[in-house]
Specification:
The chain is an alpha+beta fold. It has two domains: 7-67; 81-182, START domain (Alpha-D-Glucose-1,6-Bisphosphate, Chain A, domain 4, 2-Layer Sandwich). 40% of the residues lie in helices and 25% in strands. The protein contains six helices and five strands. It has helices at residues 7-14, 18-27, 35-44, 53-67, 93-111, 171-182; strands spanning 81-90, 119-127, 131-138, 143-150, 155-165. The protein has a five-stranded antiparallel beta sheet with strand order 1-5-4-3-2, covered by helices on one side. Strand 2 (119-127) and strand 3 form a beta hairpin. The protein is globular, with a radius of gyration of 19 Å. The protein starts with 6 loop residues before the first helix and ends with a helix.
Length: 185
C-alpha cells in the first residue's frame, strides 16, 4: 500500500499549515489547473530554507491533488502508478551492476520474465558518472529502471523503479518481485 503525501512534513518545512495551503490553492483556482499549474502556484508561495523550492512545490501539488481526490497515493500525473524499492549493498558500483545483470539472467532463465511478464527488447545500460542505470520495457507496456548510486566507499544503493503500472492493486506485487530480486544481490 502506498502512503498518502506527508502533509506534516510540508507544514514543517514551509511553515504553513495544510489548511492554509488548501485555502491558498483553492483561492488561486488550483482545482481547475493541471499538476504543473498547481506546482507553479505553490513555488511562487514558497521560501524554503536551504532551497529545494521546486521539489517542495511538487510535493505540495501532489498532496493537494490527493486532497481534492484527483490523484491516488502513488499515482503519476498520467494516471499510471509506479513501484519503487531500494537496497544498499557492499561493493563497487560497476561490480554491483554486473551482479544485477547475473541475477536478472538467472531470473529470465528460470522464469522467462519478472512477475510473470517477459522483457521486451534488450535492456539498455548507461553511466552518468554519478549513477549507473539499467532500463528495459516489459511486454505488458510497463518499464523498469534500476539505478546504482555510490554511498561512500564500497557501498552502493540499488533502486528499482517500475513505471506505467495500470492499477494501484498491482503495485504491492511488483514491489515484492523487485525486492526479492534485489535481495539476491
Amino acid at each position: 500500500m502506498v502512503k498518502p503525501s506527508n502533509v506534516s512534513a510540508i507544514e514543517k518545512v514551509t511553515d504553513r499549515s495544510w489548511e492554509a495551503w488548501v485555502a491558498l490553492l483553492d483561492d488561486a483556482g488550483a482545482r481547475e489547473l493541471d499538476h504543473g499549474g498547481i506546482a507553479v502556484i505553490a513555488q511562487r508561495n514558497l521560501d524554503v530554507e536551504g532551497g529545494n523550492n521546486g521539489w517542495w512545490a511538487q510535493s505540495v501539488a501532489v498532496a493537494y491533488e490527493q486532497h481534492i481526490g484527483r490523484r491516488l497515493p502513488g499515482q503519476r500525473p498520467d494516471g499510471t502508478f509506479e513501484a519503487s524499492v531500494s537496497r544498499t549493498v557492499e561493493g563497487r558500483r560497476e561490480d554491483v551492476a554486473r551482479a544485477w545483470a547475473e541475477v536478472l539472467l538467472d531470473q529470465l532463465a528460470a522464469h522467462g520474465g519478472v512477475g510473470g511478464v517477459a522483457l521486451e527488447g534488450d535492456a539498455r545500460a548507461n553511466d552518468t558518472g554519478k549513477r549507473s542505470y539499467w532500463r528495459v520495457g516489459l511486454t505488458d507496456g510497463t518499464r523498469v529502471a534500476v539505478a546504482f548510486e555510490d554511498k561512500g566507499a564500497d557501498r552502493v544503493t540499488v533502486t528499482a523503479t517500475h513505471e506505467r503500472i495500470a492499477a494501484p492493486d498491482h503495485v504491492a506485487d511488483w514491489k515484492a518481485d523487485w525486492k526479492e530480486l534485489l535481495g539476491r544481490l
